[in-house]
Design a protein that fits this description.
This is Type 1 glutamine amidotransferase domain-containing protein. The protein has eight helices and nine strands. The chain is of the alpha/beta class. The relative contact order is 0.17.
Amino acid sequence: MMGKILNIVTNHGTYGDSDKPTGLWLGELTHFYDLFEAHGFQQDIASPKGGRSPVEPRSLGRFTADRSVRQRLQDPAFMARLEHTLSAGDVNWSDYDAIYFTGGHGTMWDFRGDPHLQQLARDMFENGRIVASVCHGYTVFADLRLSSGQYLLQGRRMTGFSWNEEILAGVAKQVPYNIEDLVKQQGAHYEKARLPLMSFSVRDRNLITGQNPGSARAVAADVLKALTEK
């Protein structure tokens, strides 16, 4: 197969205005990127502002940085792309077959309400392209309305990092809002795995979402299947 994927990453590197670091959960990008690279897809990496995407230090830990992550860390060309991401306002949605919103807690500050990210998601969704997210990437869908005025998530089955997982991660008091509750209030049919941190993904037509960092491969497989069907 040949096609083109737009990966979206965060620019935000701390919990709010604190000095506690966060950013992109690197495996959520590499696990997805690896699959589409293996299938010959072209891929771009963009962010709300363009430029550097900081990496969440915890995603590089002994038990979180698997082979995929370690190999990309040693790939200068790949890491340079995270230092020089495209600006979301400069890309054209029609150039891509799918858009993938990665996670990491940084997204809670710069994905939600970003007009360029919202426009990309809206245009691709309304034109039948694949719109996908994993973990906190679904913060981009909060408050996002379609051209009809309806919330994009209204009546849609979906998933994303759960409030229980925020508690288990020890950051529930540091995040700016409860994203699980918020999307439910906006009409989403939120689903989650029976146990926290298990791989879990949901497909509702051209919307594909994954619950947590361990779900990136499942999301990638679902996106690839959806593109194959098209």
